[in-house]
Amino acid sequence: MSKLGTIVGVDVGGTFTDLFYFDEAKRSFRTNKVPSNRGDEAVGFLEGLQGFGAVSHLTSIVHGTTVGTNALLERKGARIGLITTRGFRDVLEMRRRDRRNTWGLWGDFIPVVERDMRAEVDERVLSDGTIRTALDVAQVTATARELLAKGAQALAIVFVNAFANPDNERRALEAVQAIWPNDNVACSSQILPEIREFERTSTTALNAYLQPVVGSYLQKLQNALAGEAFDGRFHIVQSNGGVMSTDAARRFPIRTALSGPAAGVIAAAEIAKAAGFPNVITGDLGGTSFDVSLVVDGATSLAAQTTIDFGLVVRTPMIEITTIGAGGGSIAHVDAGGLLQVGPESAGSRPGPVCYGGGNERPTLTDANVVLGRINADRPIGGKLKALDVEAAKRAIARHVGEPLGLGTMEAAEAIVRIADSKMAGAIRLMSIERGHDPARFAAVPFGGGGALHVSALIKDVGLKAALVPRYPGVTSALGCVIADIRHDQVQTLNMFVDGLDIAALTRWMQSEAEHAQGVVKDARLAVERIDTLFELDMHYVGQTHTIRATLPAEIRDGAIALTVEDVRKAFETAYQKSFSRLLPGVPIKIVNLRTAAIGVRPRFDLATLAPDAGADLVKARLGSRDVWFDGRWWTTAIYARLDLPVGSDIAGPAILEQPDATTVIAPGFKARVDQFGNVIVERI
Amino acid sequence: MTTLDPITLAVLKGRLEQIADEMDATLYRSAFNPTIAEARDACHGIYHATTGDTLVQGQGGLPIFVGAMAFAVRAVIAKVEKDGGLEEGDTFIFNDPYDGGTHLNDFRLVRPVFRDGRVFCWIASVGHWLDIGGNVAGGYNPKAVESFQEGMRIPPVKLIAAGRMNHDILGIIEANSRVPMSNWGDLNGQLNALDLGERRLRALLDDYGDTTVSDAFEAFSDRAETLMRAAIASLPDGVYSFEDVLDNDGIVDEPLTVALDVTIAGDTLTLDFTRSSGACKGPINISRSTTIAACYVALKHVFTEVPANAGCLRPISFAIIDGSLLAAGPPKPVAGYTETILRLIGVVLGALAKADPSRATAAPFGTINALSIAGHRKDNSRFVMFSFFGGGLGGNPATDGLNHANNPISTATIPPVEILEAAYPVMFTQWALRPDSAGAGTHRGGVGAVYEVELLADADVALLGERGKAAPFGVAGGGSAALNRFTWQTADGEAGPPMVSKITDLHLKAGKRVRLETPGGGGWGPPEARPVAAVAHDVALGFVSHAQAREVYKVAVAADGAVDDAATRELRAGGAA
């Protein structure tokens, strides 16, 4: 639809900012990697972009961010106020009466809005949408003023049963905006018009909690881009793996909660599928964390609801990702009980590992990899440093790990890596084995700066079939930004019965939801081949409270939707039978929610673009050899320039494949080959 | 037995737990009544072919059922031994509380999984059905003196014989409930779960071979036993005693004692309940198997590292007097069994707190408050709203107790207000945390809740609750929590039940409100050692009143929320101020 241009995917992680530049007309690409500056991400962001020339020449920038996730996990969102129905101010804190663990009774919970910032007003809507108590607008105004006086930077309005009738909420929203004309106020029927007050309150409150943080972050980036005379499009990746406009991101920052990781999973799934590995476990090892996600038969798994932390429930579709605190910057220490621990405390990118010379004196996973010779100290990733300080890393490991445990420095360094490997293996097991998948059918796709360092150990520890290291593992998330489709998901609770269904009313809802969703996609103004609209109904037999998702065969043709009651019933029964063995003939069927997704399908990215040159030569790619420590001793290890390896290369371990943004370690007992796209496939010999 | 490599063992553990989890999930998603679908009052697992021991349990199953299910399978094994005739494709159904059950609402389905013509193992499903007759809709009849007033009792019988459904039994069940459609939906959900479990298990056996899987079962149990022995051995040898009381049995207004003497000797544990009360007239008796299941729940909460299978019970012995409150036989009423097991779990926590102060946990709120609101909608269809409510957990060495949590016997989530209001003619007017309900302490208990609901149709209301007279206790110097409180609107004010938290035959008109205020958890450590700022914060949030701050925490907080340092110093120094 739009003309071809130059697009850059930017993934800002905790340690590095990765960029992937693609010239759509020339079908050529470049990558870049610069250190992130926590707290002032715009600096690294711009520096990275400038690596591709003048920023003003770019057509479009797509950004994957962890600023929302970090604010949630570290509880660094804004001070916000919540206005709710009289009698219900504690919904957020009461949750669904759950506890942290099935077994064990300890632990408490502090909600993101404490009780003194949650206020009640007189109003009441019944479950059928009838207004039982009209809103007292003056009360709302007074309440909002009080919350603002107490320092609220954003306000969330959540009324009971607002999914059935949003009138009171909308009037309250208008009243607040009249005295506080501000974008940082929203009501629950705008964010999630779906039944279940806790989930809706939590999602709306967390959205408000992130709004000032994400809003000011985006503003900083936009100012920086404007300063460079950039007048192209600037977009954000959502947790569902689709792209949205920055305007949408400001309104729905909660949808960015897993933005960066989702982009990586999208790209990894795409790369693995093309390479003939439809079943993979992606593992993103960054500076501070390891994110694992499951791809089965080429499809990423979307969860309707995610619990970010106990009691922090977000109900928007998200790619399912499990995160553990183990990354290159994770600090190794010996705890009071004499056990070696790696993480979750991290040295991040500033001051960074000891070997960066940034002032940190406690050893990290990266330090251990450097000391073992696995990371080349003379060619550090990121390009800022000339060389890594191996001796400093050795001293730190000896002092903080070797001496307390009575181990030599090398043994201590290997122990650090082993602990980190087993933590990563545990996370992969959780995603695969514990969900009933046989790991022998799966390949690991490591990405992020450090994942490829650990592939051999992961194959061995988990019992995986193989590992696939993408050609540019360090910029997988950035690549995902470039290839992700535009997507907007919506939900609306309808509560309609299939018997005597007013099909015209249903299709009217579908049409208006579709128009809105498509509008959001179009507003993103990014090149798309077409916009697909998907309709799903959450349905159940009357009496059940859980629903099943039935995909409607409906299409919009000439502005109309052809759909019959029989189509709806059949869609339900097909879905029900697939999940449960028995239908319940005679029991009435109810439609609870309508789910609408508009997907702006982007032009396909040809992964062959990434493949090695035809002239590549294995002999020329050989850089020499160095001693690398494996299994308690030094091994003379062949070193290759990864990007110079030709298609079809076969390399037996021990070997190390180096490239500017990542290092792949092939341990003794493993071998590697290069496939037609330039991916490295690692397997046991 | 062959030695399995650790990876295969880990894979099998994951896959088998996954099967149980999927069975749980299947029932939650397809059940009709919110007590299963939302509150997850259900459980699934895989059980030993000859002993009925729990081999594998899902992560999501209701904790009390996790302990109780082995007894259900044993009841079916005993039935088969007596009557014979077990065939592939059979499925048994029963709810007999005295023979492997809990209370009449809990329907068990037990199915053999045959391999090569022999029972390889059993799979089973239990779920709490909404209504099975009896005097009170929902089954929690606080006035029952015999189980006949609680509903229909079914011993283990074949619902499905060699794959053929016995519709006669379905007909009997249907005729004995106020809400047959709901029960039918739940039954189908349970059958769905068993079908799925059997399918998944057979696929797994085909993949790995029967021998490998049965070896793995044994290895899991051995591991649980080893871990439980290690956990017990970490406690100092000795005898530790603790007791608590139930308010009354709903019929006779006298307290009932649950008393425990724990003996720790090396890596073994004896739980002696012989000092407890005899069986009572009202419905809060429990059967022996329920008592053992409840002890298992309590121990699992303390020793969280021990896996959930039968192996962990091997180092533990019990002393319980037959025919007592904790080992009642037919036809003693048992509908309110939850109240008694909650007291029992509290008593185990209290005794272990003495054995190991570093694990000391104060009492959880300790009552489920089974509230039933039943009547007819405008279209004359019958409704039964049946729900359990939350309260606070106990303070402990690590943290304050959790506000508004579920009981230790449950992982049940509470149904959302909006789901309840969509399903029943009720309107909640309050759903809130309850000030001053937590036990004071250095780490206070979690606060309880206030639920107030207006009836939108005439209704019969019944409640079976506890803790109206004996409050949840604190440990290590912590204070007790507030009492449970239930009231309803009358023409000229409010009224409460004579038996405090137990009532039936309460007929209320549309427009009237009922109100339930639940206890918090007990406190841990002396209240005057709680940091002044934490007390002031609790006052600012409205969890602690100015009066409680002053009198119990010895902190003077002014009306504007500021701490009066001088007065506080004097209060904490022991002055009257």
List the helices and strands and how they pair.
The complex is a heterodimer of chains A (685) and B (577).
Chain A: E1 6-12, E2 16-23, E3 28-35, H1 41-50, E4 60-65, H2 67-73, E5 80-85, H3 91-94, E6 118-121, E7 124-125, E8 131-133, H4 137-149, E9 154-158, H5 167-179, E10 185-187, H6 188-191, H7 197-227, E11 233-237, E12 243-245, H8 246-251, H9 259-274, E13 280-285, E14 290-296, E15 299-300, E16 302-303, E17 306-309, E18 312-314, E19 318-319, E20 322-324, E21 330-334, E22 340-346, H10 365-371, H11 390-405, H12 409-431, E23 443-447, H13 455-462, E24 466-469, H14 476-483, E25 486-497, H15 503-523, E26 530-541, E27 548-551, E28 556-557, E29 560-561, H16 565-579, E30 589-601, H17 618-621, E31 622-630, E32 633-641, E33 650-652, E34 655-659, E35 662-666, E36 670-674, E37 680-684
Parallel strand pairs in A: 1-4, 4-11, 5-6, 5-9, 9-10, 13-23, 23-24, 32-34
Antiparallel strand pairs in A: 1-2, 2-3, 7-8, 11-12, 13-14, 14-15, 14-20, 16-19, 17-18, 21-22, 24-37, 25-30, 26-27, 26-30, 28-29, 31-32, 33-36, 34-35, 36-37
Chain B: H1 6-30, H2 34-37, E1 42-48, E2 54-57, H3 63-83, E3 91-94, E4 106-115, E5 118-128, E6 157-161, E7 164-165, H4 167-175, H5 180-208, H6 210-233, E8 238-246, E9 256-265, E10 268-272, H7 288-302, E11 316-319, H8 337-355, E12 370-376, E13 382-387, H9 417-423, E14 426-433, E15 449-455, E16 459-464, E17 485-490, E18 493-495, E19 502-508, E20 513-517, H10 532-541, H11 546-551, H12 565-572
Helix pairs in contact in B: 1-5, 3-7, 4-5, 5-6, 7-8
Main sheet characteristics of chain A: 9 strands, mixed
Strand content of chain B: 15-25%
Roughly how much helix do the residues of chain B carry, as a percent range? 25-40%
Q: What gross morphology of chain A would you assign?
A: globular
Radius of gyration of CA atoms of chain A, rounded to a whole number:
26 Å
Level-2 CATH architecture of the domain at 78-209 in chain A: 3-Layer(aba) Sandwich
